[in-house]
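[Meeting: bench + compute handoff]

Bench side (C.D.) handed over the final construct sequence. Compute side (W.E.) agreed to return the predicted structure before the next meeting so the bench team could plan truncations. Sequence as handed over:
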Amino acid sequence: MVKRLSGHGSKYRMVEMKSMFFELTLNIMMRMIAGKKYYGEGEHMKDLEEAREFQEIVEDTFTLSGASNIGDFFPLLNWIGVRSFKERVMSVIGKKDKAMQELIEERRSLRRNGFKVEEKKKTVIDVLLSLQETEPDYYTDKMIRGFIWVLVAAGTDTSAGTMEWAMSLLLNNPQVIKKAQAEIDVQVEKDRLVDESDINKLPYLHCIINETLRMYPAGPLLVPHESSEDCVVCGFNVPRGTMLLVNMWGIQNDPKLWDEPTKFKPERFEGLEGTRDGFKFMPFGSGRRGCPGEGLAMRVVPLALGALIQCFDWERIGDELVDMSEGLGLTLPKAEPLEAECRTRSSVLNFISQL
């Protein structure tokens, strides 16, 4: 990503950030799951047609997840050419299952042909196929297809959206970018790109991400939960089996809990131990039912944003502030995809040319 953005050197260029972040996170997930990527160039981009089809399936799935069709409300319209939402969903599900099964068969074929994979380079599918050999009734192909798709769906759009919100907030608050750049310049050697081992030395970068997650949590209502027993919560009787939705967005933007909650103030998280502040801040939920992808997200997002802040100067397109309107979807997407201008910082030109 850094190498692609640095192609224009010290001249400003316009970048469409939403697509860039989506491509980055999808590639990361697919390298983990199946040992390949679907965007970019190089040794892992051998089948461009397969990549194009997979991109379409993923994008169609995310589009349908936050949309509906007028034909479902007025069935008569289906007679004049409007396909029902259910038909569209079933079509995408069929394509998705086919693509997932092809990934499984590809890794299975390698195993049958005696291809040895180093332990640390095993993909998620490799691990699941190993388990299938010992517990075939549980680790069926259907189970594996569902498992790996959940990883793609949960690990792609959420992290990409968080990075897009973070960059939008940074562009509207350029003084925060300068402060973050200064921290990275002090903590990371001048002749190399920020690395995962540096992340714990960048507390202000973590403050930026936490403040972004507070204002724009990827799961504004968390994941639906269900009460396992009858209980009383704050005087309310909650019967067993009741579906519970936690309005995390409401809690994290409540003026009774947060000083000036609509203002972007990363400094509010300075000095706090860990990432949570009681139950006021829980963008990943909490406890045993918290998001299992938190560890991955809190490595990918800081590393990607840290690299963008370290390597580039950023400007808004025009004088107006970035539009922060929220769109529709299962997560909390921006209504308008983020566009920005960036140029490579002179201090990093040498090592970027060697990437």
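W.E. noted at the follow-up: The chain is about 50% helix and 5% strand. C.D. will use this when planning the next construct.
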